[in-house]
Amino acid sequence: MTWFTPYIYKILFTKYWYKDLLYSLGDKIEATIQDNACSIGSLCSRSGNGAPKISCAAVDCPPAPNEKKNCVPIYKQNSCCPTTYSCDDSATKPNDVNATSPFKCKYLSIEYVEGESIYPDDYPCYSCTCSRNFTGEINTDVCQEVNCGIAIHYQFELANQGEPVYYQTSDGRTLCCPTHFNCKQQAYDDDKRLF
Question: Origin, by domain of life (predicted)?
C-alpha cells in the first residue's frame, strides 16, 4: 500500500515541484540556473516512466586553445564554462621582460593560478576558486558547496522516499554526489497511472 492519495498521484505525474513552485509540462524553469550555472534552457518534460522531470540544455564549453601548451581553465565563481585559459607560454617567450606571472594560490602543496578551480580531497563537497582572497582555508569567500542538482534531477526518487547511494573510492573516501537512489516504495503502480 502506498501513502500517495489520488490527488498526490495527479500532482506527481502532471506537475514538477521546484523551489516552492509547481510547473506544468512544457513550462520553462529558469530558476535552475541559480542552483547550477550549467542548467540552462530548463523546462518541465516527461521522463521515460511518465513522471515529470526537468530537462536542461547541454552546455558545450569552448575547448582550450590548441596552439598553446599546459593550459588551465580559469573560472569566475558560479560560472559554468571557463572565462579564459591560463597557458604556460614560457617555452615560446623565455626572455620576455614584460611578462607577468599570474597570481598563484597554494593548497596542500599544490599551486593553482588565479581563477583555477580547486577540488579539495579532504572536503569533497566543496569546490574553491583560486583568488587573492584564498588563504588555504576552506571558507565561503572562495569556496562553495558542490550542488549535485538533486532537486533538479531526482524529484521522482525523492517522492519515492529514495535513499541516495554514494560511490566510495578505493581509498575509503565517499564522493559528494549520489550515483543513484534506492527507493523504498514505488510512488505509482502501472495500473494507477493518471495520464
Answer: Eukaryota
149 CB burial (10 A radius; 0-12, 13-18, 19+): middle
SS3 per-residue string spanning the chain:
CCCCCHHHHHHHHHEEEECCEEEECCCECCCHHHHCCCCEEEEEEECCCCCEEEEEECCCCCCCCCCCCCCEEECCCCCCCCCEEECCCCCCCCCCCCCCCCCEEEECCEEEECCCEECCCCCCCEEEECCCCCCCCCCCCCEEECCCCHHHHCHHHHHCCCEEEEEECCCCCEEEEEEEEECCCCCCCHHHCCC
Greater confidence (87 vs 106) lies with 106
pTM beyond 0.85, yes or no: no
